[in-house]
């Protein structure tokens, strides 16, 4: 089913919103009609917003007893046909990992907003961090794929939430809005559109819900209540959902298709922005809130005569290693500033070939300043 244009159901025009409120409005605009969650700083404002706004729009809100129940209820709601989401942070994400794997293996569209805080463990609940990048991709066991988008503004907290729903529904995968506390609690002006494009999941009656002829295909998704003989299991299954836990061929083909349905579409999924890259000798690779500081540092460096550019990653997962390889061909070095100990740095190094990569890390619960990035660039001259 292609994208269709709909009237934005939330108030359009210039607004002054927090990032968390913008994410909640983006969810409603995308058609979310179920939210199951448990409050946790710094994401709680999303839950508060949904508790007020979903019921008047015909949706349902449920505060669950913990994060395990939250994501489990979201998976269940999705199989009834509702676009469904939850939001969490740090320890809540850890608790959701088993069901995240269940969602990936059962090809259940769900959206998770992770407003990252300083970890590990309970860490600093009110402070910023960006240490969950690997956890959202590798936290559950086995081989699977997710989509993760990294907003750098309140505007993108809205627009990328809509995109996360569209990708989740289209690909039948868990999709993350991988935000940070600084963006979730940031307040700034946003311009919400009068209309937007949304993707409603594909459903063809009587087609198998867990398999298709293409090795990277995305099957039709029925819902409970439509008269299909629907079986949903986290065990290895055939295209009709029957358990096939003893068949090596079933498991091999299923795991490969679940991965390839995302990886074969990387060119369509992965998004980025480039600033001053045409003549850049040094390239800052940044994402999320840190990219704001990086852009300011790049502009200051340019005024000082340094040929620097910024590559802002919007899509984190799947990771666009081809993009890094292309940019590396014209660069003398990369700088990767991160509010963790170098999670994307390792991905950039693996794709950069012989191009040197410098890591700038900070895990003190504060955002990285433009001055820190500028100083690191100066050391690379």
From TrEMBL:
InterPro entries named in the record: 2-oxoacid_oxidoreductase, PFOR_II, Pyrv_Fd/Flavodoxin_OxRdtase_N, THDP-binding, Transketo_C/PFOR_II
Domain Pyruvate flavodoxin/ferredoxin oxidoreductase pyrimidine binding: residue ranges: 25-247
Domain Pyruvate:ferredoxin oxidoreductase core: residue ranges: 280-372
GO MF annotation terms: oxidoreductase activity
Keywords: Oxidoreductase
Source superkingdom: Bacteria
Entry-linked PANTHER family: SUBUNIT OF PYRUVATE:FLAVODOXIN OXIDOREDUCTASE (PTHR43088:SF1), SUBUNIT OF PYRUVATE:FLAVODOXIN OXIDOREDUCTASE-RELATED (PTHR43088)
Name of the featured protein: 2-oxoglutarate ferredoxin oxidoreductase subunit alpha
């Amino acid at each position: 089913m292609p994208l269709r244009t709909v009237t934005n159901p939330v108030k359009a025009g210039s607004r002054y919103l927090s990032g968390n409120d913008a994410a909640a409005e983006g969810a409603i605009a995308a058609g979310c009609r179920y939210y199951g969650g448990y409050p946790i700083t710094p994401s709680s404002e999303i839950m508060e917003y949904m508790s007020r706004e979903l019921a008047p729009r015909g949706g349902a809100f449920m505060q669950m007893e913990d994060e395990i129940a939250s994501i489990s209820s979201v998976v269940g709601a999705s199989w009834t046909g509702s676009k469904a989401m939850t939001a969490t942070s740090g320890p809540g994400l850890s608790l959701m990992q088993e069901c995240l794997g269940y969602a990936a293996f059962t090809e259940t569209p769900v959206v998770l907003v992770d407003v990252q805080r300083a970890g590990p463990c309970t860490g600093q609940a009110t402070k910023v961090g960006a240490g969950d990048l690997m956890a959202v991709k590798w936290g559950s066991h086995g081989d699977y794929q997710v989509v993760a988008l990294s907003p750098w503004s309140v505007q993108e907290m809205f627009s990328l939430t809509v995109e996360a729903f569209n990708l989740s529904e289209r690909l039948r995968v868990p999709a993350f809005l991988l935000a940070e506390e600084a963006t979730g609690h940031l307040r700034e002006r946003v311009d919400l559109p009068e209309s937007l494009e949304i993707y409603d999941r594909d459903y063809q009656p009587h087609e198998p819900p867990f398999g298709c002829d293409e090795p990277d295909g995305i099957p039709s998704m029925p819902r409970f209540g439509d008269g299909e003989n629907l079986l949903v299991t986290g065990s290895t299954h055939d295209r009709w959902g029957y358990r096939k836990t003893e068949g090596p061929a079933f498991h091999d083909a299923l795991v490969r298709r679940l991965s390839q349905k995302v990886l074969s579409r990387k060119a369509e999924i992965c998004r980025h922005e480039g600033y001053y890259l045409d003549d850049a000798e040094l390239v800052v690779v940044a994402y999320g809130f840190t990219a704001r500081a990086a852009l300011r540092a790049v502009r200051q460096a340019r005024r000082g005569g340094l040929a620097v550019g910024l590559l802002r990653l919007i899509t984190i997962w799947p990771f666009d290693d081809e993009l890094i390889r292309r940019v590396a061909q014209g660069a003398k070095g990369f700088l990767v500033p991160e509010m963790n100990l170098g999670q994307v740095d390792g991905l950039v190094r693996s794709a950069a070939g012989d191009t040197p990569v410098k890591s700038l890390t900070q895990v003190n619960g504060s955002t990285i300043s433009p001055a820190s990035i500028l100083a690191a660039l100066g050391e690379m001259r």
